[in-house]
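tool_call: predict_structure(chain=1)
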Amino acid sequence: MRATFVFSLAVLLLATADASAQFFTEDFDDGMGATRWSAPVVDSEAGVFDGTADFAFDYGALGIPPAPGGGNSIGLFFESNRTDQGGDQGESIGVTSLLASLPANYLLTMDVFYNVDNNAGATTEYATVGVHASGANFPADPAVNDDVPFDFELSDGDGLAWQASGDGGATNDMHRYEDPGNLEAGSQTGLGSYDSLPDGTIPGVPTGSNNFPKFGPEELWVTMTVRKEGNFISWSMNGAQLDLIDNSDNRYTGGTILVGYSDPFNSVANIGLGTDPYPDIAHFAIFDNITLRVPEPSAMVLVACGALWMLGRARRRG
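tool_result:
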């Protein structure tokens, strides 16, 4: 009887192990997203904001398909480096949630669409997904001030973040940025290129040598996931884990969500030229269906707890 009960308890707990409580959600559908997110925080080599952050952008009007997470076609739109400003002109843009405070364990998911302006050649812009952001250093200014992740060791950002480009061709199409507490004392880690990953590593995203010359999520929706459970924080694309860090020293706690876009290069979009399907827009990324959940304890932990409880009952009865 006891063995049957423990087995039944284990089955029940395993069946519910992936359940989670919704903690925060943002689908931008009401057009009021700007009231729930910060004004754009910019790190710019030119010292000016040469892009766009639109919290109520109708991407369906461009013919972009619906995001995999559902809802209507309103999302958060970023573009950067629209015009030739002269000199070094790379820039990174980010916004932080005004509502979401990260719990001890969490599951953060979001849909991201990548446009790649092929008329500008190898553009290499990066969508940014960040956690444990503490807010911009003050006084905030648009110069490179270490508030938003920026390649080439120019800015480690704020908290923990990942960037992934929409196309391949770079030595590192993916990066991790670390700066706990936004103290301007962080690090950058290259995570490799799409073409160096074996075919099929990221479901639905071209990787590996057989897909030349197209690598990465160009003109695709992907689902980004950041998960913190216990001492570990992972980052995934379409369910494929691409990075994992050990946070046993608790350097990342609290803070909020950061999302953004970065063009660290001097190249600009050839707006209105060639065969770009969006001729009046620079290269861009769209975010939709940002959801923060508090995951239930893992199945094996729950099963172990159930087994220990039954063992304790058996001993008391003995």
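agent: The first helix runs from residue 2 to 15. Proceeding to next step.
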